[in-house]
Amino acid sequence: MVSSDETVRMDAAAPPTSKPRGRPRSFDRETALEKAILAFWERGYEATSVADLTRAMDIGAPSLYAAFGDKRSLFEEVVRVYTARYASFADSALAEAPTSRAAVERTLRDAVGAYTDPDRPHGCLIAHAAINCTTPEVADSLRDRRNATIAAFEGRIKDDIATGVLPAGTDAAALARHTGAMIQGMSQQARDGASREELEALVEIAMAIWPRT
């Protein structure tokens, strides 16, 4: 028979019992971010809801907010990563090509390949996200990015005019804006189903009208 003193000692030695606490679901941030890129790329900014994102990223809304902030903050990160990972061809061409003409041709040809890649949504995420975007801060940021690309081409064209690579009367601003229109237009046509071959034919026309000395 166990004495009352022994019972007290046994109770004191026993570990306290408690209900197991729930743990937040863990996830790979980079994998979730890539899924967010694809979701915005496919639907655009305005049409992609937080519910769409949580389904695509396979995480709950609390995890999304904790890891990425709100929808706008997530989109800003998506654009930065998308640009570096999938749309750096203009920056690379401008930095590496010997002339503005070579930079434009390389950019357009690389854009064709990127916009018609069968393994990804067609077109450009930045161009598509801007369509019907009613959030001023997002629309302004996307417009600034597009205009920055046009300005970079204009700067290279002016350099070539100054060194005699292009004729003195070349309209640098119009030529750069034509390049921007080609990039943005090919993005939309790729989303509308234009093939790589059809877009490459447009590049041939664009380069045929490029001014020469």
Structural notes for this entry:
This protein has 213 residues and is mostly helical. It has a single domain, classed as Tetracycline Repressor, domain 2 (Orthogonal Bundle). It contains eleven helices and no strands. The protein has helices at 4-13, 29-43, 50-57, 61-68, 71-86, 89-96, 100-115, 125-129, 136-162, 172-191, 196-208. Helix 7 runs parallel beside helix 10 and helix 9 (136-162) packs across helix 10 (172-191). The longest helix is centred in the last third of the chain and has 27 residues, at 136-162. It starts with a helix and ends in a 5-residue tail after the last helix. 28% of the residues are buried. The model is unreliable at 6-24 (pLDDT under 50). Residues 26-86 form the HTH tetR-type domain. GO terms for molecular function: DNA binding. This is TetR/AcrR family transcriptional regulator.
Q: Under the CATH scheme, which class? A: Mainly Alpha
Overall tally of structural domains: 1
Number of helices: 11
> What is the molecular shape?
elongated
Computed structural class: mainly alpha
- Taking pLDDT < 50 over at least 5 consecutive residues as the criterion, the unreliable ranges are 6-24
Distance between the termini: 111 Å
Query: CATH-wise, what's the superfamily?
Result: Tetracycline Repressor, domain 2
What do the pLDDT scores average to?
90
Sheet with the most strands, sense and barrel status: none
What would you say the CATH architecture is? Orthogonal Bundle
Number of strands: 0
CATH topology tier name: Tetracycline Repressor, domain 2
Strand portion: under 5%
Relative helix content: 55-70%
SSE order, one letter for each helix or strand: HHHHHHHHHHH
User: Which radius of gyration do the C-alpha atoms yield?
Assistant: 27 Å
Protein name: TetR/AcrR family transcriptional regulator
Domain HTH tetR-type: 26-86
GO molecular function, one term: DNA binding
InterPro entries: DNA-bd_HTH_TetR-type_CS, Homeodomain-like_sf, HTH_TetR, Tet_transcr_reg_TetR-rel_C_sf
